[in-house]
Amino acid sequence: MSETHGASYASAGVDIEAGDRAVELMKEWVKKTRRPEVLGGLGGFAGLFDASALTRYRRPLLASATDGVGTKVDLARRLGVYDTIGHDLVAMVMDDIVVCGAEPLFMTDYICVGKVHPERVAAIVKGIAEGCVLAGCALVGGETAEHPGLLGPDDFDVAGAGTGAVEATELLGPERIRAGDVIVAMASSGLHSNGYSLVRHVLLDQAGMPLDGTVEEFGRTLGEELLEPTKIYSLDCLALTRSTEVHAFSHVTGGGLAANLARVVPDGLHAVVDRSTWAPAPVFELVGTVGRVEQLELERTLNMGVGMLAVLPETAANAALTTLGERGVTAWVAGEIVPRDADRTTGAALTGGYAS
């Protein structure tokens, strides 16, 4: 009679040893994000951050945000490239936090996989850690969850949460904006991490374009263009607040430029952005042309070449452009804040045609 064995976690599809190896592989990358306020290392139940650092504030306000990177993870899976998606995650979280003027302090991540491949998980964390360095924050912990049966062996998703701090008297937002302010646009690095359901539907499902095929307008493959990491603006925005007067920032994500700018425009005022002040990168035109996507649909889905906006006094515009230029950020005056009249029903609008 053959010997029978009871069920185990491994027989259910969860590999504890692989998870342990993944943690060992990621430790060196997490260590690179360390700030003086971080206590301990990986392995505890909670990440520790010394809150006495906040004593330098008179009235510290904590800012928090959480996000993911959407269906861009599908392209990373298809291409087998896992060390850039973490940049996207940090950008989506920390660039939301910096909008109110807050300094990014620390972040945690959540990685959900169908099967733990230690090197793959470590590559994802490597990207998150590198992104945290670019944002100036610490990666204090996270969770890797294995969900066999719910996700395929190669499927994964990522999410993260972050915390920052800002002095109450330095909080940025709609209350500071005045008529006559100008809008400074900061160039995006590409599609960033929004609109990929539309992009995948148009370019991959409808047009059948191969991810490994070179696109002449890009000077690289389609896959390389689509996986271009989201630019992280956190330290650039903080440098701007230190060098000149800033009234508000707007992170251009889901909903597009106009909808996100409208979120920081107060009642009684209206933001007008002139499309002729910049030319979107070729990838935006490709999606629109191949999919016959109407311009307004493109603009409410994709960032159209602008990843962050700063609203500031007209007298501060030159100083802002100088600061951003010195930091390697392509920026320009794209519009202005005007009084809202009876014919304007939204907080922001785009005018004119794009530059060629």
TrEMBL record:
<dbReference type="InterPro" id="IPR004733">
    <property type="entry name" value="PurM_cligase"/>
</dbReference>
<dbReference type="InterPro" id="IPR036676">
    <property type="entry name" value="PurM-like_C_sf"/>
</dbReference>
<dbReference type="Pfam" id="PF00586">
    <property type="entry name" value="AIRS"/>
</dbReference>
<keyword id="KW-0658">Purine biosynthesis</keyword>
<dbReference type="GO" id="GO:0004637">
    <property type="term" value="F:phosphoribosylamine-glycine ligase activity"/>
</dbReference>
<keyword id="KW-0067">ATP-binding</keyword>
<protein>
    <recommendedName>
        <fullName>Phosphoribosylformylglycinamidine cyclo-ligase</fullName>
        <ecNumber>6.3.3.1</ecNumber>
    </recommendedName>
</protein>
<dbReference type="InterPro" id="IPR016188">
    <property type="entry name" value="PurM-like_N"/>
</dbReference>
<dbReference type="GO" id="GO:0004641">
    <property type="term" value="F:phosphoribosylformylglycinamidine cyclo-ligase activity"/>
</dbReference>
<dbReference type="InterPro" id="IPR036921">
    <property type="entry name" value="PurM-like_N_sf"/>
</dbReference>
<dbReference type="GO" id="GO:0005524">
    <property type="term" value="F:ATP binding"/>
</dbReference>
<feature type="domain" description="PurM-like C-terminal">
    <location>
        <begin position="178"/>
        <end position="342"/>
    </location>
</feature>
<feature type="domain" description="PurM-like N-terminal">
    <location>
        <begin position="61"/>
        <end position="166"/>
    </location>
</feature>
<comment type="pathway">
    <text>Purine metabolism; IMP biosynthesis via de novo pathway; 5-amino-1-(5-phospho-D-ribosyl)imidazole from N(2)-formyl-N(1)-(5-phospho-D-ribosyl)glycinamide: step 2/2.</text>
</comment>
<keyword id="KW-0436">Ligase</keyword>
<comment type="similarity">
    <text>Belongs to the AIR synthase family.</text>
</comment>
<dbReference type="GO" id="GO:0006189">
    <property type="term" value="P:'de novo' IMP biosynthetic process"/>
</dbReference>
<dbReference type="GO" id="GO:0005829">
    <property type="term" value="C:cytosol"/>
</dbReference>
<dbReference type="Pfam" id="PF02769">
    <property type="entry name" value="AIRS_C"/>
</dbReference>
<keyword id="KW-0963">Cytoplasm</keyword>
<keyword id="KW-0547">Nucleotide-binding</keyword>
<dbReference type="GO" id="GO:0046084">
    <property type="term" value="P:adenine biosynthetic process"/>
</dbReference>
<dbReference type="InterPro" id="IPR010918">
    <property type="entry name" value="PurM-like_C_dom"/>
</dbReference>
